[in-house]
Amino acid sequence: MGNARRVLPSVFICSTRSDGRAADTGQSGDRRDEVPTPGYRSDLGFRPATMPVAFFGRGHYMSRSVMIPSRVSRGWDPSRPGRRPAGTFGHRRGRWVGGALAFVTALTVAACSPGGGSSKPAGVAVPDPAASVTVFPGDDTRGVTLTDHVVVHANAPLADVSVAREASASEKTEPGVLLGTFSADRRTWTSAGGLYSDSRYQVTATTSPAAGIVGTKSVRTSFVTGVPEKAFKVSWDPVAGQTVGVGAPISLTFSAPAPDRAAVQRMLSVRTDPPVLGAWNWISNRLVVWRPQQYWTPGTKVHVEANLAGYDAGGGRLGVKDRAMDFVVGSAQISKVDAATHIMQVFRNGQLLRTMPVSLGKPTTPSMDGPHNVLGKSPEVIMDSATVGIPKGNPDYYYEKVQWAVNYTSGGQYVHSAPWSVASQGRTNVSHGCVNASPADAQWFYGISRLGDIVDIVNSGRPPDTSQLGNFWSVPWSVWKAGSALPVSDQPETAAPTTPPAASTAVPSAPGGPGASAAGGPGASAAGGA
């Protein structure tokens, strides 16, 4: 033993079969469960010693040989009973061998443990993905709900997204665009507005070059929206392209009650040039009115929007489109009427145009004080007191066809021609509440009047009824803005409106409402008439 060379143990690492047992190493016969038997001495001074192979885990066995130095195994035959000679297993010198076997065991466990590393060959690169874009709603989808949003998503930053809307004959809309916003990483774009009814949309999107993404991608898709069973629409006054007087409020009437005033008001906007301070006031769930704090300045350009597309008003009723219109404020025409002196003076931009003798409401049916704004005009109006609770047979009953009628309250009060009261005009008040003028003066006044002009009556003894249209200028500003469903800023909106269309001096026919006659023209209220 003293001459034996020290050789480190040789280890033959096993492989593992798919059934969990060590794979055959190529020796003939079943040699996988033991080390080779002794019986020869190697040229290196080793000879194998027989020993059961250790079980190193589920389904893993060491195979081949564990070579043990001959100086350790010499003289020991496991088949011979009795004490093992010094230097064999179990002796103090065998501790080195035990350590060597522990080392072998550790190597064998590491080498034979299944799933310990990647199944992919080392050095094989995963290819980068190609650029891709998805669009919702999908291409050629029909009947898309108006409450849906258009969403474009890509695996690379989006360079550009555009959504174009084609004109719709059924909704009487022109072509337009749908705006939206990008996410922080620009990989998602989401529409910000609602969808129009019965309209085709074209979506175009393109990605930017990006690290780790192969190429760029451009897509073009389209979809068509459906038509709701019930529509939530709005009409307004003034109308697009109109030139109005300095007292014209902006009145919006909805086709059904607004279920949430604040939500609807957020979809409305008024922008002016120059900026003007104003506020919305809800008269009812179907009527909301915007009024400036003071009379308009002549020449002001006004842009109004009602962006109701996609709004769910409940009960299956949806906003079918956005609307926008522009109008301009014309000259400041203000007529001052004094019931005590029976005189009416007409001013334009501060200059007196004409002084007219008039007759106002008699003591039992007085005219109404306060500044009024012109609501409309008609060359002829039927005034039937039966429509306002004064039937035939009543001493105060009247039925008259009047000409050159300029309406200034929804209660049925007008400035109109009254040839039957010319003798009283300028002297006494004999009407049922209207302002009577001579045929010549009434025709002249009719010709120069327009929506929003001011008719300011004083000394009649009857306060204004602010529940009636035409009397909103009698409402104090603090009270007016309290009727808003949202907080009112003390600063006007600064965004300028779009360029207004060519001015129009047309004034609509006087509206119906309280006091409308059965013949279709506005009739006088109990306080109005010839």
From TrEMBL:
Recorded superkingdom: Bacteria
Keywords, sorted A to Z: Acyltransferase, Cell membrane, Cell shape, Cell wall biogenesis/degradation, Lipoprotein, Membrane, Palmitate, Peptidoglycan synthesis, Signal, Transferase
A Pfam family reported for this protein in Swiss-Prot or TrEMBL: YkuD
Region described as Disordered: spans on this chain: 18-43, 488-530
Alphabetical GO biological process terms: cell wall organization; peptidoglycan-protein cross-linking; regulation of cell shape
Low complexity compositional bias, start-end: 494-511
Domain L,D-TPase catalytic stretches: 333-458
Cell membrane is among the record's keywords: yes
GO cellular component, one term: extracellular region
Annotated metabolic or biological route of this protein: Glycan biosynthesis; Cell wall biogenesis; peptidoglycan biosynthesis
Active site per the UniProt annotation: 416 (proton donor/acceptor), 434 (nucleophile)
InterPro entries for this protein: Big_10, LD-transpeptidase, LD_TPept_cat_dom, Transpep_catalytic_dom
Protein name: L,D-TPase catalytic domain-containing protein
